[in-house]
């Protein structure tokens, strides 16, 4: 019994020792890796040529090589050493200078992007070693041991997150300026914005001109505008024009599950940028990491990242010739600290293009496409009010796809018109539709069109169709006569009246109401609520803003907490919105009752042809 008890105690001891042994091995592995790394660095430091000389920027090295101002160039693992003629105490000697190469950067690609023919220079750069020295053997041994131990370490830590070793490195992509392939010639329709950014380009090319007079070029420029207006394209064009390194990243790439990773990536990005200056850092969708602090919109880890951005942009350390460009669709949610002078000194608003801008944008995107003779791009430019540059590019691309699908080699005017409707309203739906559904749709769309025709300040009708597109069973296309910056109250009321014209026609001519008016009701309610709460167009509620409609629409709640008005005013707002829509519905019914013959005539044309153009629609009222 005593012997069995003794054996049990020994087994228990063995079981307790096992986890200690495992944790000890990890500590040992880390120690060996660190020691191997330090010894390898030490041997390399002894063996490498210590006469590297003065450190300069990578851009200067590229400039010297492109201008032929060098005697010899040596390319090593993370640096390039250039030898130039110099004078010391009256004697001509060779002076060495070196520049560090950011991780992941191909030096030959940088030279090629700057216009250097690397085929004629590659032999000058490649310096093969002859034989293997004793120091090389020792370095290889320690390096091999280190790699084996790192592999064992990573295998032991796989359950903790895979790529844990490089979580703090920036994921920004580095391009040399010319590699972006975009200049200001490729950007059209926003000439005022291009003029502002031309100053940035001039500073990057000729910084002394500004510094000599005491001027300080903006450290940061924020591009704000709706999606698709060309903010990212502008940033690439600035880099292409200036011909400097271009770091491209996005706000979401700073986010990481591990605490502190975002701040570490910010530090790494700005460190690389300083080494490659003059350069541009472009942060797309910066609102992902720069939302207002102390609100429900921002997390604790996100605040760490934002704080690091604030320090890097305007801290104690200078960052000469490093300009930060950023883009956002939501400048209203950005923290005030990042918008102040010294960080983002300028906010450049990129507006939707006007008619002239849309025409220039379409010319740019039409360069690589083939069109039939007589195709009128100006007509499409007039029709596409409210389209962004991305929408216009997509329109031309869809037209090209349509032509290619039918095995045609050129784009026709019909392709452009169909693509215009497809981008605006959606693709045509195919399938059998019952006669009853067609008739209800015809009366519904006729209601919209006739009400718009006889309502003062309503937007003119361009086309009426009972062909299903997207989410709708039929469509009435409106086309404003020109681009407007200001919309008046009577024009908003007219838009509500036109929107409810479909429901009014169903009640008067069909005798039943359908679900087809759901989108119309949503549109009318949205316009009426904005009139009351945002534009101060209510006599009862006065010229006061109630809540933040934009934030409520996008995020589901009012920014900064609950609504900023009492229950009493909430009831008044609801009542006022309801009254506006009710009055518009009554006006629409009155208009349709007085113009029944035009409604019936339009319905007859729709059932016969499915689509009624603007000319055909206007012809109804001249007979």
UniProtKB/TrEMBL annotation:
The species this protein was found in: candidate division WS6 bacterium GW2011_GWC1_33_20
Protein name, as recorded: ATP-dependent zinc metalloprotease FtsH
Topological category with respect to the lipid bilayer: Multi-pass membrane protein
Family matches, as Pfam families: AAA (PF00004), AAA_lid_3 (PF17862), Peptidase_M41 (PF01434)
Top EC category: hydrolase
EC number: 3.4.24.-
Record keywords, A-Z: ATP-binding, Cell cycle, Cell division, Cell membrane, Hydrolase, Membrane, Metal-binding, Metalloprotease, Nucleotide-binding, Protease, Transmembrane, Transmembrane helix, Zinc
Positions of the AAA+ ATPase domain: 217-354
Residue numbers binding ATP: 225-232
Main location: membrane
